[in-house]
Amino acid sequence: MAMTLLGTFISLLITYLVMLFTSEKGLRYEEMQFITSPYRIVFMAGLFVGALGAVMDVAITMSSSIFGLYEKNNNITVKALKASGLEIGKDIMGTMTNILFFAYISGSIPMLILYLKNASPLAFTLSINLSLELARALAGGIGIVLTIPIGLYTTIFFINRKRATK
Amino acid sequence: MNVLMSLAAILLILMIWIGGKKGIRSFFALFFNFGVLLLTIIFMTNPNFNPIIITLIACVVISYINIFYINAVNTTTTTAFFSSIITIVVLLFFIDIVTNNAMIQGFGEEETEELSIFSLYIGVDFVKIGASVIIMSTIGAITDTAVAISSPMREMFKHNPTISKKELFTFGLSIGKDILGTSANTLFFAFFGGYMALLIWFKDLSYSVGEIVNSKIFSAEIITIFCAGIGVGLIIPITSWISAFFLVQPKEKDKTRLHDKKS
Fold first, then answer.
1. Between chains, do B193 and A60 touch, taking CB under 8 Å as contact?
2. pLDDT reading at B157 higher than 60
3. What is the mean pLDDT of residues A123-148?
4. CB neighbours (10 Å) of residue B233?
5. Cα torsion for B131, B136, B137, B139, to the nearest 10°?
6. Secondary structure (3-state) at B207
7. How close B73 gets to chain A, by Cα (Å)?
8. Is B76 on the interface with A (CB under 8 A)?
9. CA B238 to chain CA centroid, nearest Å
10. Contact residues for A50 (Cβ-Cβ < 8 A; gap 6+)
11. B79: which residues sit within 8 A by CB, 6+ positions away?
């Protein structure tokens, strides 16, 4: 729970800072659909919800597998836990970012085809249709990667506390 | 530096920091996937090609990148690869029926405003494109689940080589149960994140429940989520069965060979 919130907030913060420093160059809000409220807030809210699911998944996987290792062998060292936690993290990192990537990008396929069939230049079509989706996918990916060490250290902290109370 | 470049750079740095070499491979896999997706879209604009067949080819390439490029080529990844392909083919038949009957292809009335400058007579079959959109959004989750099931199954087999085919299959299913919830959840949140603006639109324009359920974009979205969930659910027994089959098979062969030598 704590790590889900921490991971999501940090990824959101990074994205916000990046948007601030680059003055949102390259983001094309023109193509955002269904706007009834200020576009930037809507975009950030969508980014938040989208990242939340993936970060939650990673946090659950990390904590349950590390706790599983601890429960099987109560005397396992913190170093060994760290090593196998990182190994698990490496395994899920690539595929999780791909899930987000495909879930976001595939929705804009019909629009891309319509643009291309109406003889829009390829670079223009991509930048106007995909910039927001790519930003979402990348921000989600940052959240996923950050949650791996956060999840690892929080779980180890809880395991240490459990050991101390014993 | 624009936003996307900076975000990509931050992602690359983080991936290298956490994952080392594997992190670099994961990062480049994202770009290869993007290239494959782009090529697929360009091929789809040609009305002479069947979009579903193009999607099938693209899915094979994407699974290849996701499974063999990020991980190494071994028995685990091979079984994961074949299970993904089988699941995608089965799912494609199912989705084809769904999209033919659900009328969710094309664009909803909420989207038409901005389309007025475009010609809609472009000669591309949007029913089939609707099917490929659904498949494309599921493929990431399918390959992920396939790898996530087959790799612990191999570990299990390594630790207990005497395990029977049936026990290994049930073990695969039990891992699958854990993954099913979280993967479906990830997809669910990703879609709702992408369509946050639509939900706010529904609320601000005070749509009734009936109007929301019947609006094309919303129902298309829900059908995509369900199909993605079905895909993730379907791959669990398929991967478990194929992994159990492949893992237990060679052992029996070894046994018979030993037998032959003895006799």
1. no
2. yes
3. 85
4. 15
5. 120
6. coil
7. 14
8. no
9. 14
10. A100, A104, A136, A140, B189, B190, B192, B193, B194
11. B146, B150, B239, B242, B243, B246
Q: Looking at per-residue confidence, does B100 or A25 come out higher?
A: B100
Q: Evaluate if pTM is beyond 0.80.
A: yes
**CA–CA separation, B139 and B98 (whole Å):** 17
Q: How far apart are CA B196 and CA B114, in angstroms?
A: 19
Show which of residues 75-104 on chain A sit within 8 Å of chain B, judged by CB atoms.
86, 89-104
What the block records as the tokens of A33 is 């659909």
Residues of B in contact with A132 (CB under 8 A): none
The rounded distance, in Å, linking the Cα atoms of A51 and A63 is: 18
Q: Which segments within B81-240 are labelled E, that is strand?
A: none
Cβ contacts of A127 on chain B, cutoff 8 Å: none
Residue B159 in 3-state DSSP? helix
Let me know: does A71 contact A81? Beta carbons within 8 Å: no
Give Cα separations from A128 to A40, A136, B107 (angstroms): 16, 14, 18
Tens of pLDDT, residues B210-226: 888 888 888 888 888 88
Contact B192 A22 (CB under 8 A): no
Provide the pLDDT confidence category of residue B158 given band limits of 50, 70 and 90: confident
The tens digit of pLDDT for each residue in A33-85 reads 666 667 777 888 888 888 888 888 888 888 888 887 787 777 778 888 888 88
Write down the pLDDT at residue A24. Answer: 66
Which of B15, B18, B133 is opposite residue A107, by nearest beta carbon?
B133
- Cβ pair B14:A146 closer than 8 A: yes
User: Do A31 and B114 make contact, defined as CB atoms within 8 angstroms?
Assistant: yes
In the Cβ-directed half-sphere of B212, how many Cα atoms lie within 13 Å?
Answer: 13
User: CA A155 → CA A83, A143, B110, distances in Å?
Assistant: 13, 17, 46
Q: Which among A100, A92, A155 has a CA at the least distance from the CA of A133?
A: A100
Q: How far apart are CA A70 and CA A91, in angstroms?
A: 19
Contact (Cβ atoms closer than 8 angstroms) between residue B122 and residue A62: no
Our CA-based measurement puts residue B188 at a distance from the nearest CA of chain A, in whole angstroms, of 8
Cα A64 versus chain centre, distance? 19
